[in-house]
Structures are given as C-alpha cells and as structure tokens.
Write a structure and sequence with these properties.
13 helices; Immunoglobulin-like; 5 domains; alpha+beta
C-alpha cells in the first residue's frame, strides 16, 4: 500500500503540474471558453471548484466515526458519493457512516471546495494526497465534446449507406429492449424523432434519484423530461436511435432502441469526469450495457480509468479531433488501455480519414463516418455536425443492433464482432488497429460466429494480449494484439471471430507463444505443457471456511489433480468474509484439491473438495452443508483497554433470561490494534442470545445489547464512552 500511495501521489503531482501549465478558462466563470464546434487545442482543463478522492481501505479510514465535509482538513461545502445507491445518494446531510465509507464500492467522492480557484485546488490536492485515509486525490478534469466545424456539402445521411445499414436492417432494425446510455450534454426529450425511443426506467425513484424516469442530469441534479444543456447530446442520440420509418426527419441506426439520458455536460459543452463517473455507476446499477462517450481531451485520471474498468458494459469513446497520432500523445478516455473500450476515429464521405480525426494504430480501434453528419438538434430540428463525436454513436448504434439480434452476447463478443466485421481500407492502414471502417452488416454476421479462447498466464505476464488471424491471413488486430481479460486467477480470455484459425499469445509484444492452431470454442491454452484443454469459466463451485482460529488473512490454494489447472500461486487466493467467522471462495469445478491458509503461514492439510455449498471446519476436519441465509451466528469483538486477564463474555436472552454459567465463555485473542490494545472475539448464535457482559480480573462492563455481526465493544480507561464499532478503533473484521 505504501508503494502504491507514493506512486499515486507522484501521478497526481505530475497531472496537477501538467494541468496548471495551461490556462484554459477563467476562475470567474470556471468553464472552458470555447465553442464546442471548434477544433480546440486546450487540454488538461479541470474544475476550479471540485476535486475527486478515492478512500483507502485501511485503519485510517476506519478511525472516522462518519464522513463529513470537514473530515479531511480542507474547506468543503459539500461531499457527494459517486456510486448511486439508496443509502448514499439520499443523505442530503452529506454524512456517511464508517460502514458506508469502508465499502470499496462506495469509496469515490467529489468534494466541492468552499473557495474556488486554481490555488484552492492545488492546496486541497496537496492536503488530500498527504492524508493516509485517502488513496488518490485528483483534479475533476473537464473534457470537451469531440466535434469540429461543419462542412455544408455533406447534407445527406451518406453514412448509413457507407456502413451497410440497409443490409443490416434486413436482419434487425433494433429493439426497445436494448438500452444505450448517452453520456453527453443531454437529450431533447421532446424532439419528435427521439421521444418514442426514450428509455423508461423500470426502477425510477428507487435508487436515490428523484424522477429518473428516462435517466438523469448529473450536473443539475434533476430528472423528469430529458433536456440538453448544449445540443451536442441530442445530435449524438439521433445517430444512434432517431425513430425509423415514422415519416419524420431522419432514421437512426436503430429504428427502435431505448436511449438513456445520462446528462453530464454544461451549456458550454464542458464535461467533468466526476459527473461521468457517477453516470457510469448509474449505468451499472441499471444494467445499461452500452454507453456512448463522445468527449475527451482531459488529463489522465486513475479514478476515472478504474470506473471504466468496473463498468460491466461496452464503453464506446471518440478518439478526438486534433488530427494527431494518439499513440504518442494520448487522448482520454479513449486512450485508456481497457478491454471494454472501443476507440473510434472519423472518416468522410470518400472513406478518407477526416482531416481533424486523431488516429493511432495501437490506440484507436476502428473508424466510422464522422464528417458532415445530419442528425437531430434541439428545437426539434436537424443540422450537420462533424467530429469523432459523430463517428462514435455509429459504433455504439451497431453495438445496439448486435444486442437486439443476439441478446446473449457478452461485452467482449460485441467488441470482437464490430472490430472483425469492418471494411478494410488501404487509407486506414497504420491509422487504426483494424485498418477498417465500420460495417453494420458484417458485424452482425461476425456476431453469429465468435468464440472464446483462454490463456493461462503462468509466467505472470504484465499485459496479456492475443494476436489472431484467419486462414486467408487478413488480421482483425495488429501486433501486439488485443488485450485479454482476466476471468479468474491467472486465466485470461479473448473473444475472437470463429474464422480465426491461428493465434499467438504475447506479453504486450515481448515474450510470446508459438503460432498456435485454435481447436475451437472454450479452449484454454496451458503454456507449461503446450496443450489445449476444455474450459468453461461459468462452471464454478463455492466453498466455505470456518475461521475458528481468527486468521487475519484467510486464503485458499486450489488445484486439479493430475491436470494443469493451477489458478493461483502460494499462498493462494484471498477469501471473502461472509458473516461471523465464515469465509468463502469460488473455484473452478474441475479443481478437486484445496488448502486453506493464513496468508501462507498456518495452514490446513491437503483437502479433497466436497462440492458446491460445503463448509469446512478445521477443528473437526469435516465438510458440512452450509447456507448463509440460514446462518444467524455473529462474531463480536472486545477491546481490552484495562488489560484484564482471562477475558470472558456472559451471554443471555433478555426475553427468557436463559444464559450460560457466570463468569461466561472464554473469548479468543485476535490481535493487538495500533494502540497496542488487545482485541478478543466470541462467536455465537444471535437467535439465542441478545445481551452480553464482558468481564475479567474482577472487572466487568454493563449489560449491553448485542450488536450486529463484526461489531465490537470499546471501553475507555474511565469505563465510560462505550461504542459498538470496532472499526472506529483500528480493527476490521475483514
């Protein structure tokens, strides 16, 4: 963690220095003073009012009783969690309990500073990055909509013919069951060509967002009828899904689709990454598995990259409009090397790379029409716009077509079908990774025949990639290939067209395998034996471990007898705390052996796996059936500040006064906390006991109501000021 903190601080300092070196907007209005339709050279702009933090999951965070605007030594007027949930969003007071902030799913916040300005942001980041309770503090970078000046000669929808939309529509014209999140300046919800294709949220008003019937404006914090703060998002939305065959205006790639309003932009076209992060989390929450992201140009953000990585869907991003090679000068977010991103360049009506379009043979995946695109704009009219902003929704729209025809496609399968189903063009060679321009019909054909192949990363390669090609030698990807996705342990997956017959696995073009023949779908390559075996990543079992010895770091090391499947190296895979002293681990069903260990120190014998849903008791050395829903046991903790000897707990049920014999059950020593105070634990059935007294060395506590699982009792030296929450005093059950 210390090394990670140093690196994150250095990155933050570098980003701040880079951002502060360019003056892009005034402190008075705090927005980029540019026309969104201009080719802007400004980069690394950031908010003068807000910063983003990611909390560390350590004892310093747990010392906070609650998280408020003044918790971190900077003057804030507001703190807001960027992960939508009923528990966090609805707390208008901005106060969060320790349980909330220690949840790694809820650890990213945006802080609004009381004083705005460049100096205020710089000072706040310096303070925040020095706080051990914070893992990363970053500027709230401001991105721009990726659009450029219009060319009036392009006044028709030539793009639909270019990408073979007519042929694709013979297969599917879209479906309202497919939702595309338009992360942009907004949508004019009353536009006659868009109103029928607005998403209707089945979970409206249930996750802390008021009136989010069709989505939400994450800048103005409003729901209801979608609005567009600028106009850019409405143009993008028409390309994806203007109603087809309705006798009005234009047709989107999808005649029918559900457009989710994820408003993140201001009236000037400025987009802050804090709003985008919240919108992405909202998309995850509502199973919106395609998002269009026609913006970019801000600084590198580790927090933003992590949010995209955690997004379960396809993140289609514009490559930018500087007319430069982004292999050398990255454009974010499209340049983040993540398996769920498609980066899109722009072409014109002659299939030439648009003069404004960024390119990059390793950083940009594909091109699509983006010059002179006619689409919907606010005031219920239509207009031409140009930019990679306009190319990107064609790709997102084709992704929606694929899901409408093949609802079971994974994110990786959608991406593979789009990138393999291009029209390869000489003029795009060495410009984009596929060397091709989007073709909707070919993508639909490719989606029928994608396969998954797996690779065991036994050499701990840092960046596993796959380079594959069909018999005719026409490569869908270029060296060093497409990034593979880790599915479990050291097993990585690539989704490729089934017409690919050969593959090479590589460490980002460094170490590599031989040229291999692909045996078929769901095959795993084992490099140590140079063999393929059948592998189904969904074929998993979950086993449980009873941590009676209070191991601090329970881990599991599992393997397949007489086989090749070693998904983890010693001391194994970390286990997940379930409740009380019960931990769990999911392992491939083909594994038949397991060892439980305390981070490689104390350990069990070699154990034969008993099957799914089994609990192992290390004391009896036996397996039993286990259902967490039926388990009412809890583990409580006691901080022995008075150095009592032979610490015990006296338990009883207040309703019927049933109890055990005084002076109670002996408690187990767990560890010392950072204050050198001993912590003890006791595990029991909470359905049988609801009261407890801790005692030892002749002293005792008062009658205490039993708290929830994993809580603890803290007693001050004066025997006053009790509190149920051991995490506040430096110890976490997990």
């Amino acid at each position: 963690m210390k090394v990670k903190r140093i690196i994150s601080v250095l990155l933050s300092v570098l980003m701040i220095l880079g951002a502060f070196s360019v003056q892009t907007f005034s402190a008075e209005d705090n927005v980029i003073n540019t026309d969104v339709n201009a080719d802007v050279n400004t980069e690394c702009s950031f908010s003068y009012e807000q910063v983003i933090i990611k909390l560390a999951n350590n004892e310093y965070t747990y010392e906070l009783d609650e998280l408020t605007a003044d918790s971190f030594g900077v003057n804030c007027s507001e703190i807001r969690n960027l992960n939508p949930s009923e528990d966090t969003i609805t707390q208008s007071s901005g106060e969060y309990s320790v349980e909330d902030v220690s949840d790694t799913n809820n650890n990213v916040y945006v802080l609004t500073l009381e004083e705005s300005g460049e100096d205020s942001v710089e000072e706040a980041l310096e303070i925040l990055n020095a706080n051990p309770a914070i893992e990363i503090a970053e500027p709230d970078y401001l991105y721009e909509c990726d659009a450029t000046p219009n060319d009036p000669s392009y006044s028709t929808q030539y793009a639909l013919q270019k990408i073979s939309a007519t042929e694709a529509w013979n297969i599917t014209r879209g479906s309202s069951n497919v939702v595309v999140g338009v992360i942009d300046t907004g949508i004019q919800g009353t536009h006659p060509d868009l109103i029928d294709n607005l998403w209707v949220n089945p979970n409206a008003n249930q996750n802390g967002y008021i009136n989010d019937i069709h989505g939400y404006d994450f800048v103005n914090r409003t729901g209801g009828t979608p609005t567009d703060n600028h106009g850019h998002g409405t143009h993008v939305s028409g390309i994806i899904g203007a109603s087809g065959n309705n006798g009005l205006g234009i047709s989107g790639i999808n005649w029918d689709v559900s457009l989710a309003w994820l408003g993140v932009g201001t009236s000037s076209g400025t987009i802050s990454i804090s709003a985008v992060i919240e919108a992405l989390n909202y998309a995850n929450l509502n199973d919106i598995l395609i998002t269009n992201n026609s913006y970019g140009g801000g600084g590198y953000s580790e927090i933003f990259k992590e949010a995209i990585s955690n997004y379960r869907g396809l993140f289609v991003a514009s490559a930018g409009n500087k007319g430069r090679n982004v292999d050398n000068i990255p454009h974010y977010p499209s340049s983040y090397d993540l398996p769920n991103i498609i980066s899109v360049a722009s072409t014109d009506s002659e299939d030439q790379l648009s003069s404004f379009s960024n390119y990059g043979v390793t950083s940009v995946d594909i091109a699509a029409p983006g010059s002179g695109i006619y689409s919907t704009v606010p005031t219920s009219t239509y207009a031409n716009k140009s930019g990679t902003s306009m190319a990107t929704p064609y790709v997102a729209g084709v992704a929606a077509l694929l899901l409408s025809e093949y609802p079971g496609l994974s994110t990786s399968q959608i991406k593979a079908a789009i990138l393999s189903g291009t029209d390869e063009l000489t003029q795009l060679e060495n410009k984009v990774a596929t060397g091709g321009r989007l073709n909707a019909y070919k993508a639909l054909q490719a989606a029928q025949t994608t396969i998954d192949v797996y690779f065991q990363n036994s050499s701990n390669w840092s960046l596993v990639k796959a380079y594959c090609w069909p018999d005719n030698g026409s490569a869908p990807v270029v060296w060093p290939g497409t990034t593979m996705t880790c599915v479990y342990g050291n097993i990585y997956k690539a989704t490729i067209p089934s017409n690919c017959k050969n593959i090479i696995f590589s460490n980002n073009g460094g170490s590599q395998s031989d040229n291999l023949s692909i045996p078929g779908n769901n095959q795993l390559y084992i490099p140590t034996s140079e063999t393929w075996i059948s592998y189904n990543p969904d074929d998993m079992i979950t086993v449980y471990f009873q941590n009676d010895n209070n191991w601090l770091t329970p881990k599991a090391y599992f393997w397949e007898s007489y086989g090749y499947f070693y998904p983890t190296s010693w001391p194994g895979e970390s286990m997940t705390h379930v409740r009380a002293n019960i931990y769990k681990i999911s392992v491939p069903a083909r594994c038949d052996k397991i060892i439980f260990s305390n981070n490689g120190n104390s350990q069990t014998d070699d154990i034969t796996l008993a099957g799914d849903g089994k609990l192992y008791n290390p004391v009896t050395r036996a397996w039993s059936n286990y259902n967490p829903l039926d388990d009412t046991t809890v583990t409580l903790y006691f901080t022995n500040v008075n150095n009592w000897s032979n610490v015990k707990a006296y338990l009883w049920n207040n309703a019927n006064t049933s109890n055990n014999i005084w002076p109670g059950e002996s408690m187990k020593y767990v560890r010392h906390n950072e204050y050198n105070q001993a912590i003890y634990s006791i595990t029991f059935d909470s359905s049988a006991y609801d009261r407890v007294i801790f005692n030892g060395s002749g002293g005792q506590t008062v009658n205490i109501t039993v708290g929830s699982d994993g809580t603890g009792y803290y007693l001050t030296g004066s025997k006053t000021g009790t509190a149920w929450n051991v995490a506040s005093y430096g110890y976490s059950v997990s």
